[in-house]
Amino acid sequence: MKHMTAAFLFAVFVCAIPGSGSAQMSQPSAAAPQAAAPVKNPVTSVLRIILPRQQKNILAAIDAMPADKFSYKPTPDQISFAHLVVHITESNNAMCAKVADIPAPKVDELKETDSKDKLLAAATASFDFCTSALANVDDSKLGENVDFGRVQGPRAMGVFFLAGGWSDHYGAAAMYLRLNGIVPPTAQGKPSH
Question: Does residue 64 sit within a domain?
Fold first, then answer.
């Protein structure tokens, strides 16, 4: 088996060397696809592409945690799962407002002791706010200096805070779920037919 694999890889390598294959392979095809046109507003466009998947996964992770486990902390020094949900909600509202250059929504202050239903609804509303706030944002204002609270920098920093934060938040939620014997949404197998 190893010899067949090595022979196959060698054949693929030899065929990939210019001039080693047939003349047909080394000439461009008349039907070759044209290069894609540049994307207008690439930074904010990519953020809008990332948002729905992260929204789906984070909200599914929050929903998967049983209500009686929202006070769970892996260690005494770590935040509770409920605190993570409050942080996700506040972060979404603040960062999406900064990136879109609009006011953050007026919402009731959340507490770690709030019910699962209230926290999940607030997190859902924060993603809905991000979706509407980011819908028409373009890259033209990303160079403007913005105060993000603990740091100042170009508005583009907020884009990276959001994208990185969503990944970090889902990773944390997945860890909390696993520590409670629950398989995170993205690790669940596809249903078999």
Answer: yes
| Structural contact between residues 100 and 137, judged by C-beta atoms closer than 8 angstroms | yes
Residue positions counted in the chain? 193
Could you tell me how many helices (H) and strands (E) the chain has, helices first? 6, 2
* Cα–Cα distance for residue pair 122/192, rounded to 1 Å: 34
Q: pLDDT by residue (tens digit) across 9-34?
A: 333 333 333 444 444 444 555 566 67
Tens-digit pLDDT profile for residues 98-107 = 999 999 999 9
Q: Helices marked H in 65-182 — which ranges?
A: 81-100, 116-134, 156-179
Q: Whole-angstrom Cα distance, residue 121 to residue 144? A: 33
Torsion on CA atoms 135, 136, 140, 144, rounded to nearest 10: -60
- Domain span including residue 80: 42-183
